[in-house]
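Ops channel
N.P.: pipeline sanity check, posting one input/output pair.
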């Protein structure tokens, strides 16, 4: 029976994965082969690199080859491993939730900077929580804060609850859509001094399905990605709902939304109509693309 070492199985797998990448990205094939094997062995890449001559048992090799086959069908590594790193923490992910992106980490970093400047901890609301990555990350950094997280998907709520339990944080989850009446009731119960809303809602136009990588279009939940029209409908609806609440409640608030760069002008115009007396700003991501809309009432 043929024996396999870490080096030999990596070499075999990377050669198969080369087919997925263009010549200038061939190094990614070896990296992905290492990441999958490290995950299977529950080791890090440093350990994998340092133990190239270690033999692997046949059963593990069979499992690993099945993982490589899944990747060759363009399934994202995060789903194969069942986890994704976000803001330095490991989050459980599955086919029911969007894989957290680096851009969304920037949304969290920006929120953290703003929260540190407030005189009191705000009530934090994560709308469209998905895996719960935003809500959990905020709660880990501000343990005394109250965090509400909502999603219209029951499967997503279950995934988010699992991540909250894993990271030992207490978050109140609601199965609901956007800035709903149920959410408003929860806000009124707590009567916070400040309200901080974070929303990474679906914002890609359905037409983008034709140009995106198959790892996105074939595996990630479409309801968490795509919106009809230009992709701004859900964000605009949420902004309008928050504005209606704020006009009645006069609640000091900061709201931050992630969006697709071409949508910046459309969303800013809509926000101006809904919040004519508030401070509105568009922020760029680390790649220099317009990515985040911030609404800040004067009282905040």
């Amino acid at each position: 029976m043929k024996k396999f070492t870490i080096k030999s199985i990596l070499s075999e797998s990377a050669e198969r994965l080369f087919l997925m990448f263009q010549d200038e990205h061939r190094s990614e094939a070896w990296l992905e082969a290492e990441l999958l094997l490290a995950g299977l062995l529950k080791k890090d890449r440093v350990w994998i690199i340092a133990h190239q001559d270690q033999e692997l048992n046949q059963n593990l090799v069979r499992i690993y080859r099945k993982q490589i086959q899944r990747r060759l069908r363009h399934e994202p590594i995060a789903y194969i491993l069942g986890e994704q790193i976000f803001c330095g923490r490991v989050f459980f992910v599955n086919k029911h939730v969007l894989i957290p992106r680096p851009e969304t980490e920037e949304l969290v970093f920006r929120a953290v900077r703003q929260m540190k400047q407030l005189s009191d901890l705000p009530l934090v609301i994560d709308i469209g929580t998905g895996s719960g990555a935003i809500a959990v990350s905020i709660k880990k950094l501000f343990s005394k804060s109250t965090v509400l997280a909502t999603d219209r998907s029951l499967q997503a709520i279950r995934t988010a609850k699992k991540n909250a339990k894993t990271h030992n944080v207490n978050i109140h989850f609601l199965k609901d859509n956007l800035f709903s009446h149920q959410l408003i009731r929860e806000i009124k119960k707590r009567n916070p001094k400040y309200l901080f809303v974070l929303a990474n809602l679906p914002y890609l136009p359905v037409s983008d399905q034709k140009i995106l990588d198959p790892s996105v279009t074939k595996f990630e939940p479409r309801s968490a990605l795509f919106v009809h029209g230009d992709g701004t409908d859900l964000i605009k609806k949420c902004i309008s709902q928050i504005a209606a609440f704020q006009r009645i409640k006069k609640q000091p608030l900061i709201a931050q939304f992630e969006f697709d760069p071409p949508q910046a002008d459309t969303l800013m115009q809509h926000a101006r109509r809904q919040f004519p007396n508030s401070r509105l700003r568009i922020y760029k991501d680390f790649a220099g693309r317009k990515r985040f809309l911030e609404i800040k009432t004067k009282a905040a």
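N.P.: looks fine end to end. The chain has twelve helices and 13 strands.
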